[in-house]
Write a structure and sequence with these properties.
With about 300 residues, the chain is of the alpha+beta class. It is about 45% helix and about 30% strand. The chain has three domains: about 5-50; about 60-225, no CATH class; about 225-310, OB fold (Dihydrolipoamide Acetyltransferase, E2P), CATH 2.40.50.140. The strands form three sheets. A five-stranded antiparallel beta sheet has the order 4-5-1-6-7, sandwiched between helices.
């Protein structure tokens, strides 16, 4: 369970115990007062322990709270909606995980590394009806696990796709892979058609997407298209910034290509035995055409690898 959720739950219980303690003091219930004071100290100790624990398990953990039409307070949730929403969230995690590992995914077929991204429902969250999803690991993670970092990315994707500022959504499109966009569209379409809301709690992140935010995200993802094409380009390497993973290349017709570079391309550049800036080279890039809502299409270029240096 996310640490923040544990702390919030204990803090809520502390508030309740304080109210009961005040009532016991006013009524002269000495035994009850002693029991409640002991309980209050125990709860406070647990909260302080959680806040100061730097060797906590850093395995992936996220809580999803649902509200709206499919939910009856904290009593229950529609089975069909819950099953589909959890499946779609897991699908989003799998797509983000795979794209972070290999970059562009194929248009169809199995999602690579899917088994590495699987979460399990380990509990129900208090409050509105929610589920706690955890990474299953036999060992304590002293540093944030890879899957934990992927859930970070996926959570920010959900939040920023529904942001009021259109520019926030457009900024994330530069790194978004087409099949991840489809996963986002499916998730928000289900929430919107079901008239549901969602709260996401993960590490220190805690946000709520209400009806208007979800509808906004649905419209954006449905109206946005991303197309990717791989191309080999030969030209002069004008500039390369390894620390920022940026490159600039000019082809024989004088056209400039500027964009980001993969970690593999950066490693190739760093390992080059002689300076290659100003020299001819052959590179392989992905040219991504992004057409957001009410905006003209734009191209985003990503350098995948150097095929040849200095010729």
């Amino acid at each position: 369970m996310p640490k923040k959720l544990n702390i919030d739950s204990l803090s809520s219980e502390i508030t309740t115990v304080k109210d009961l303690l005040s009532s016991a003091q006013q009524s002269g219930d000495i035994v009850g007062e002693m029991q409640l004071e002991h309980r209050l100290k125990e709860l406070s100790r647990k909260v302080e322990s959680l806040k100061s624990d730097t060797i906590a398990d850093n395995s992936a953990s996220v809580a999803l709270f649902f509200g709206g039409q499919p939910v009856l307070g904290s009593k229950g949730i529609a089975v069909e909606f819950a099953g589909l929403a959890l499946e779609q969230f897991q699908n989003l995690i799998a797509k983000v995980f795979a794209s972070s590992e290999i970059g562009a995914l194929g248009e169809r077929g199995k999602v690579p590394f899917k088994a590495n991204s699987e979460l399990m429902v380990t509990g129900l969250a208090r409050g509105s009806f929610g589920f706690v999803l955890d990474e299953m690991s036999d060992q304590m993670q002293l540093e944030s696990s890879q899957l934990s970092q992927i859930i970070d990315k996926a959570s920010f994707l959900l939040r920023d796709t529904a942001a009021q500022d259109e520019a926030v959504f457009e900024a994330l499109l530069e790194e978004l892979e087409p099949r991840t966009l489809i996963a986002l569209k499916d998730f928000f379409s289900n929430l919107d058609s079901s008239k549901a809301t969602i709260r996401v709690v993960e590490k220190d992140l805690d946000f709520i997407l209400d009806g208007p935010a979800i509808h906004r995200a649905k419209i954006r993802t449905e109206a946005t298209s991303i197309e990717e094409n791989t191309s080999d380009i030969e030209g002069i390497l004008v500039g390369f910034l390894p620390e920022h993973r940026k490159f600039e290349l000019q082809d024989k017709n004088g056209q400039l290509y500027y964009g980001s570079a993969t970690k593999e391309a950066v490693d190739q550049f760093v390992k080059a035995t002689a300076t290659v800036i100003g020299k001819h080279c052959l590179i392989r890039v992905i040219i991504k055409t992004v057409a957001p809502l009410n905006r003209p299409p734009r191209e985003i270029i990503r350098l995948l690898e150097f095929l040849r240096f200095g010729e």
